[in-house]
Amino acid sequence: MTKTAVVILNWNGVELLEQFLPSVIKYSNIEDAKIFVIDNNSTDNSVNFLQQKHPDIEIIKLDKNYGFAEGYNKGLQHITAEYYILLNSDIEVSSNWIEPVIELMDNNTQVAACMPKIRSYRNKRFFEHAGAAGGFIDRYGYPFCRGRILNIVEEDKAQYNNREEIFWATGACFFVRASLFAQFGGFDKDFFAHMEEIDLCWRFKNRGYKIMFEPQSVIYHVGGATLDYLNPHKTYLNFRNSLLMLYKNLSPKHFFQVFMIRMILDGIAALKFLLSMEFKNFFAVAKAHYSFYKMINNFISKRKELLKMNTIYNHKQINKKSIVYQFFIKKIHYYSDL
Questions:
Q1: Which is deepest, 108, 126, 156, 291, by most CB within 10 Å?
Q2: Please, which residues have CB within 8 angstroms of residue 277's CB and are 6 or more apart in sequence?
Q3: Model pTM?
Protein backbone atom coordinates (compact mmCIF):
# COMPACT_ATOMS: atom_id res chain seq x y z
CA MET A 1 0.00 0.00 0.00
CA THR A 2 1.24 3.47 -0.90
CA LYS A 3 1.40 5.71 2.15
CA THR A 4 0.72 8.96 0.26
CA ALA A 5 -1.21 9.20 -2.99
CA VAL A 6 -1.07 12.54 -4.82
CA VAL A 7 -4.26 12.50 -6.88
CA ILE A 8 -5.11 14.98 -9.64
CA LEU A 9 -8.61 15.05 -11.12
CA ASN A 10 -8.51 16.05 -14.78
CA TRP A 11 -11.09 17.01 -17.37
CA ASN A 12 -9.85 18.41 -20.68
CA GLY A 13 -6.91 19.98 -18.89
CA VAL A 14 -3.96 18.90 -21.00
CA GLU A 15 -2.49 22.43 -21.04
CA LEU A 16 -2.63 22.62 -17.24
CA LEU A 17 -1.01 19.18 -16.95
CA GLU A 18 1.77 20.26 -19.30
CA GLN A 19 2.41 23.40 -17.27
CA PHE A 20 2.03 22.24 -13.67
CA LEU A 21 2.67 18.49 -13.55
CA PRO A 22 6.49 18.91 -13.73
CA SER A 23 6.56 20.73 -10.36
CA VAL A 24 4.36 18.04 -8.80
CA ILE A 25 6.69 15.32 -10.07
CA LYS A 26 9.81 17.21 -8.98
CA TYR A 27 8.67 17.95 -5.44
CA SER A 28 6.69 14.78 -4.72
CA ASN A 29 9.74 12.56 -5.00
CA ILE A 30 9.59 11.35 -1.43
CA GLU A 31 9.64 7.83 -0.06
CA ASP A 32 6.37 5.92 -0.41
CA ALA A 33 4.49 8.54 -2.44
CA LYS A 34 2.88 8.01 -5.83
CA ILE A 35 1.11 10.29 -8.33
CA PHE A 36 -2.24 9.38 -9.89
CA VAL A 37 -4.46 11.16 -12.41
CA ILE A 38 -8.20 10.49 -12.45
CA ASP A 39 -9.52 11.42 -15.88
CA ASN A 40 -13.17 12.51 -16.10
CA ASN A 41 -13.57 11.17 -19.67
CA SER A 42 -11.61 13.99 -21.29
CA THR A 43 -12.09 14.63 -25.00
CA ASP A 44 -8.79 16.48 -25.46
CA ASN A 45 -5.30 14.95 -25.60
CA SER A 46 -4.91 14.57 -21.82
CA VAL A 47 -4.65 10.78 -21.66
CA ASN A 48 -2.31 10.49 -24.66
CA PHE A 49 -0.10 13.21 -23.21
CA LEU A 50 0.19 11.39 -19.89
CA GLN A 51 0.84 8.03 -21.51
CA GLN A 52 3.56 9.41 -23.77
CA LYS A 53 5.26 11.99 -21.53
CA HIS A 54 4.67 10.55 -18.05
CA PRO A 55 4.26 6.77 -18.33
CA ASP A 56 5.07 6.28 -14.63
CA ILE A 57 1.91 8.12 -13.58
CA GLU A 58 -1.05 5.82 -13.10
CA ILE A 59 -4.17 6.94 -14.99
CA ILE A 60 -7.64 6.04 -13.77
CA LYS A 61 -10.10 6.54 -16.65
CA LEU A 62 -13.75 7.23 -15.87
CA ASP A 63 -16.53 6.61 -18.37
CA LYS A 64 -18.00 10.13 -18.20
CA ASN A 65 -17.51 13.51 -16.53
CA TYR A 66 -18.71 12.95 -12.96
CA GLY A 67 -17.72 16.40 -11.75
CA PHE A 68 -15.36 17.10 -8.86
CA ALA A 69 -17.20 15.28 -6.08
CA GLU A 70 -18.18 11.99 -7.70
CA GLY A 71 -15.13 12.03 -9.96
CA TYR A 72 -12.89 11.80 -6.91
CA ASN A 73 -15.22 9.33 -5.17
CA LYS A 74 -15.10 6.90 -8.08
CA GLY A 75 -11.42 7.34 -8.85
CA LEU A 76 -10.22 6.97 -5.26
CA GLN A 77 -11.90 3.57 -5.03
CA HIS A 78 -9.03 2.32 -7.22
CA ILE A 79 -6.26 3.76 -5.01
CA THR A 80 -5.04 2.12 -1.81
CA ALA A 81 -3.19 4.55 0.44
CA GLU A 82 -3.02 5.85 4.00
CA TYR A 83 -3.35 9.48 2.88
CA TYR A 84 -4.87 11.06 -0.19
CA ILE A 85 -3.64 14.45 -1.39
CA LEU A 86 -6.34 15.75 -3.73
CA LEU A 87 -4.61 18.34 -5.90
CA ASN A 88 -6.07 20.68 -8.50
CA SER A 89 -4.39 20.54 -11.91
CA ASP A 90 -3.72 24.32 -11.85
CA ILE A 91 -1.34 24.25 -8.89
CA GLU A 92 2.42 24.73 -8.70
CA VAL A 93 3.86 23.03 -5.63
CA SER A 94 7.13 23.86 -3.91
CA SER A 95 9.81 21.89 -2.09
CA ASN A 96 8.79 20.28 1.20
CA TRP A 97 5.07 20.71 0.48
CA ILE A 98 4.12 17.16 1.52
CA GLU A 99 6.32 16.26 4.49
CA PRO A 100 5.19 18.75 7.20
CA VAL A 101 1.51 17.99 6.60
CA ILE A 102 1.96 14.23 6.74
CA GLU A 103 4.11 14.58 9.86
CA LEU A 104 1.35 16.63 11.51
CA MET A 105 -1.27 14.01 10.64
CA ASP A 106 0.96 11.11 11.66
CA ASN A 107 1.35 12.68 15.10
CA ASN A 108 -2.35 13.38 15.68
CA THR A 109 -4.88 10.75 14.69
CA GLN A 110 -7.76 13.17 15.42
CA VAL A 111 -6.78 15.25 12.39
CA ALA A 112 -9.00 14.08 9.54
CA ALA A 113 -7.90 16.61 6.92
CA CYS A 114 -5.34 19.34 6.45
CA MET A 115 -4.31 22.00 3.97
CA PRO A 116 -1.14 23.99 3.15
CA LYS A 117 -0.75 27.73 2.74
CA ILE A 118 -2.15 28.72 -0.65
CA ARG A 119 -0.75 31.73 -2.45
CA SER A 120 -1.77 33.13 -5.82
CA TYR A 121 0.16 31.80 -8.79
CA ARG A 122 -0.39 35.09 -10.62
CA ASN A 123 0.83 37.27 -7.74
CA LYS A 124 2.88 35.15 -5.40
CA ARG A 125 3.04 37.72 -2.61
CA PHE A 126 -0.71 37.39 -2.07
CA PHE A 127 -2.93 34.63 -0.78
CA GLU A 128 -5.23 32.84 -3.21
CA HIS A 129 -9.01 33.07 -2.99
CA ALA A 130 -9.76 29.35 -2.60
CA GLY A 131 -8.30 28.55 0.79
CA ALA A 132 -5.62 31.15 1.62
CA ALA A 133 -4.44 30.31 5.18
CA GLY A 134 -7.37 28.17 6.25
CA GLY A 135 -11.13 28.10 5.83
CA PHE A 136 -13.94 29.16 8.19
CA ILE A 137 -17.67 29.82 7.88
CA ASP A 138 -20.07 32.19 9.59
CA ARG A 139 -23.24 30.98 11.30
CA TYR A 140 -25.21 31.36 8.05
CA GLY A 141 -22.89 29.15 6.03
CA TYR A 142 -20.90 31.81 4.15
CA PRO A 143 -17.28 30.71 3.81
CA PHE A 144 -14.23 32.92 4.32
CA CYS A 145 -10.54 32.40 5.04
CA ARG A 146 -7.65 33.69 7.04
CA GLY A 147 -6.29 35.94 4.32
CA ARG A 148 -9.49 36.30 2.28
CA ILE A 149 -12.92 37.65 3.19
CA LEU A 150 -15.41 37.71 0.31
CA ASN A 151 -13.51 39.40 -2.56
CA ILE A 152 -10.69 40.98 -0.50
CA VAL A 153 -7.47 38.96 -0.60
CA GLU A 154 -4.57 39.90 1.68
CA GLU A 155 -0.86 40.02 1.00
CA ASP A 156 1.01 37.27 2.84
CA LYS A 157 3.19 39.07 5.36
CA ALA A 158 3.61 35.99 7.58
CA GLN A 159 0.62 37.16 9.65
CA TYR A 160 -0.92 33.69 9.54
CA ASN A 161 2.20 31.58 9.90
CA ASN A 162 0.92 29.67 12.91
CA ARG A 163 -0.36 26.12 12.69
CA GLU A 164 -4.09 26.46 13.32
CA GLU A 165 -7.23 24.39 13.70
CA ILE A 166 -9.64 25.57 11.00
CA PHE A 167 -13.16 24.70 9.89
CA TRP A 168 -12.51 23.56 6.33
CA ALA A 169 -9.57 22.68 4.15
CA THR A 170 -9.73 23.64 0.51
CA GLY A 171 -10.40 21.07 -2.18
CA ALA A 172 -7.67 22.72 -4.26
CA CYS A 173 -5.11 20.87 -2.10
CA PHE A 174 -6.88 18.55 0.31
CA PHE A 175 -4.86 16.20 2.54
CA VAL A 176 -7.23 13.58 4.00
CA ARG A 177 -7.00 10.23 5.76
CA ALA A 178 -8.10 7.65 3.21
CA SER A 179 -9.82 5.50 5.83
CA LEU A 180 -11.97 8.41 7.04
CA PHE A 181 -12.74 9.56 3.50
CA ALA A 182 -14.17 6.09 2.82
CA GLN A 183 -15.88 5.77 6.22
CA PHE A 184 -17.73 9.07 5.73
CA GLY A 185 -18.77 8.24 2.17
CA GLY A 186 -16.42 10.72 0.54
CA PHE A 187 -17.76 13.87 -1.07
CA ASP A 188 -21.50 14.27 -1.53
CA LYS A 189 -22.00 13.51 -5.23
CA ASP A 190 -25.17 15.65 -5.36
CA PHE A 191 -22.96 18.75 -4.99
CA PHE A 192 -21.25 17.93 -8.34
CA ALA A 193 -18.67 20.69 -7.74
CA HIS A 194 -18.00 23.48 -5.20
CA MET A 195 -18.31 23.33 -1.39
CA GLU A 196 -18.23 19.54 -1.24
CA GLU A 197 -15.00 19.79 0.74
CA ILE A 198 -16.61 22.17 3.27
CA ASP A 199 -19.51 19.76 3.65
CA LEU A 200 -17.14 16.83 4.25
CA CYS A 201 -15.08 18.83 6.76
CA TRP A 202 -18.27 19.82 8.60
CA ARG A 203 -19.26 16.16 8.81
CA PHE A 204 -15.79 15.34 10.17
CA LYS A 205 -16.05 18.07 12.80
CA ASN A 206 -19.56 17.08 13.89
CA ARG A 207 -18.07 13.68 14.74
CA GLY A 208 -15.19 15.14 16.76
CA TYR A 209 -12.34 15.21 14.24
CA LYS A 210 -10.05 18.17 13.56
CA ILE A 211 -9.19 20.06 10.37
CA MET A 212 -5.77 21.76 10.35
CA PHE A 213 -3.73 24.37 8.50
CA GLU A 214 0.02 23.76 8.10
CA PRO A 215 1.99 26.94 7.16
CA GLN A 216 5.28 25.16 6.44
CA SER A 217 3.75 23.73 3.27
CA VAL A 218 3.27 26.32 0.50
CA ILE A 219 1.65 25.96 -2.93
CA TYR A 220 0.59 28.38 -5.68
CA HIS A 221 -2.89 28.18 -7.19
CA VAL A 222 -4.05 29.75 -10.45
CA GLY A 223 -7.71 29.58 -9.38
CA GLY A 224 -10.72 29.86 -11.65
CA ALA A 225 -9.05 27.71 -14.29
CA THR A 226 -12.25 25.70 -14.79
CA LEU A 227 -14.80 28.39 -13.89
CA ASP A 228 -14.03 32.06 -13.25
CA TYR A 229 -15.03 33.30 -9.79
CA LEU A 230 -17.71 35.56 -11.31
CA ASN A 231 -19.08 32.89 -13.63
CA PRO A 232 -22.90 32.57 -13.19
CA HIS A 233 -22.66 28.76 -13.12
CA LYS A 234 -20.21 29.01 -10.22
CA THR A 235 -22.60 31.45 -8.51
CA TYR A 236 -25.39 28.90 -8.96
CA LEU A 237 -23.37 25.99 -7.58
CA ASN A 238 -22.03 27.97 -4.61
CA PHE A 239 -25.45 29.27 -3.52
CA ARG A 240 -27.20 25.92 -4.06
CA ASN A 241 -24.51 23.83 -2.41
CA SER A 242 -24.23 26.19 0.53
CA LEU A 243 -27.94 25.67 1.24
CA LEU A 244 -27.58 21.90 0.87
CA MET A 245 -24.59 21.92 3.23
CA LEU A 246 -26.47 23.94 5.85
CA TYR A 247 -29.50 21.70 5.60
CA LYS A 248 -27.41 18.56 6.20
CA ASN A 249 -25.14 19.73 8.99
CA LEU A 250 -26.77 22.47 11.08
CA SER A 251 -27.48 21.94 14.74
CA PRO A 252 -31.18 21.18 15.40
CA LYS A 253 -31.17 23.94 18.01
CA HIS A 254 -30.44 26.73 15.53
CA PHE A 255 -31.74 25.16 12.32
CA PHE A 256 -34.88 27.19 11.61
CA GLN A 257 -33.53 30.55 12.79
CA VAL A 258 -30.38 30.25 10.70
CA PHE A 259 -32.25 29.08 7.62
CA MET A 260 -34.76 31.92 7.76
CA ILE A 261 -32.03 34.56 8.02
CA ARG A 262 -29.99 32.86 5.30
CA MET A 263 -32.95 33.07 2.92
CA ILE A 264 -33.18 36.81 3.58
CA LEU A 265 -29.45 37.28 3.01
CA ASP A 266 -29.62 35.37 -0.28
CA GLY A 267 -32.51 37.60 -1.32
CA ILE A 268 -30.37 40.68 -0.60
CA ALA A 269 -27.51 39.16 -2.63
CA ALA A 270 -29.85 38.53 -5.55
CA LEU A 271 -31.15 42.11 -5.34
CA LYS A 272 -27.58 43.43 -5.34
CA PHE A 273 -26.87 41.46 -8.54
CA LEU A 274 -30.04 42.85 -10.09
CA LEU A 275 -29.27 46.48 -9.19
CA SER A 276 -25.73 46.01 -10.51
CA MET A 277 -27.26 44.73 -13.77
CA GLU A 278 -25.54 41.35 -13.29
CA PHE A 279 -28.65 39.63 -14.58
CA LYS A 280 -27.07 36.22 -15.15
CA ASN A 281 -25.86 36.07 -11.55
CA PHE A 282 -29.30 37.25 -10.34
CA PHE A 283 -30.96 34.37 -12.17
CA ALA A 284 -28.22 32.01 -10.90
CA VAL A 285 -29.26 32.72 -7.29
CA ALA A 286 -32.92 32.17 -8.18
CA LYS A 287 -32.05 28.92 -9.95
CA ALA A 288 -29.99 27.81 -6.93
CA HIS A 289 -32.99 28.19 -4.62
CA TYR A 290 -35.29 26.41 -7.08
CA SER A 291 -32.84 23.50 -7.32
CA PHE A 292 -32.48 23.36 -3.54
CA TYR A 293 -36.24 22.91 -3.10
CA LYS A 294 -36.27 20.21 -5.80
CA MET A 295 -33.49 18.30 -4.02
CA ILE A 296 -34.75 18.71 -0.46
CA ASN A 297 -36.59 15.38 -0.19
CA ASN A 298 -33.34 13.51 -0.79
CA PHE A 299 -31.53 15.65 1.77
CA ILE A 300 -34.16 15.07 4.47
CA SER A 301 -33.01 11.46 4.71
CA LYS A 302 -29.35 12.48 4.62
CA ARG A 303 -29.89 14.89 7.52
CA LYS A 304 -31.73 12.24 9.57
CA GLU A 305 -28.87 9.78 9.15
CA LEU A 306 -26.25 12.36 10.11
CA LEU A 307 -28.19 13.47 13.20
CA LYS A 308 -28.00 9.89 14.52
CA MET A 309 -24.16 9.95 14.38
CA ASN A 310 -23.19 13.55 15.15
CA THR A 311 -21.75 14.26 18.59
CA ILE A 312 -20.56 17.91 18.43
CA TYR A 313 -22.24 21.00 16.96
CA ASN A 314 -20.63 23.90 18.79
CA HIS A 315 -17.47 24.69 16.84
CA LYS A 316 -15.43 27.77 17.69
CA GLN A 317 -14.31 27.91 14.05
CA ILE A 318 -17.85 29.02 13.09
CA ASN A 319 -18.08 32.82 13.36
CA LYS A 320 -21.15 33.55 15.49
CA LYS A 321 -21.93 36.72 13.53
CA SER A 322 -22.69 37.39 9.87
CA ILE A 323 -19.55 37.82 7.79
CA VAL A 324 -21.68 39.67 5.21
CA TYR A 325 -22.78 42.21 7.85
CA GLN A 326 -19.25 42.59 9.18
CA PHE A 327 -17.86 43.10 5.68
CA PHE A 328 -20.41 45.52 4.20
CA ILE A 329 -21.73 47.34 7.28
CA LYS A 330 -18.84 47.30 9.75
CA LYS A 331 -16.23 47.45 6.93
CA ILE A 332 -14.16 44.60 8.35
CA HIS A 333 -12.14 43.26 5.42
CA TYR A 334 -9.34 41.35 7.16
CA TYR A 335 -9.53 38.20 9.24
CA SER A 336 -7.26 39.69 11.93
CA ASP A 337 -9.87 42.42 12.56
CA LEU A 338 -12.76 40.04 13.24
A1: 156
A2: none
A3: 0.96
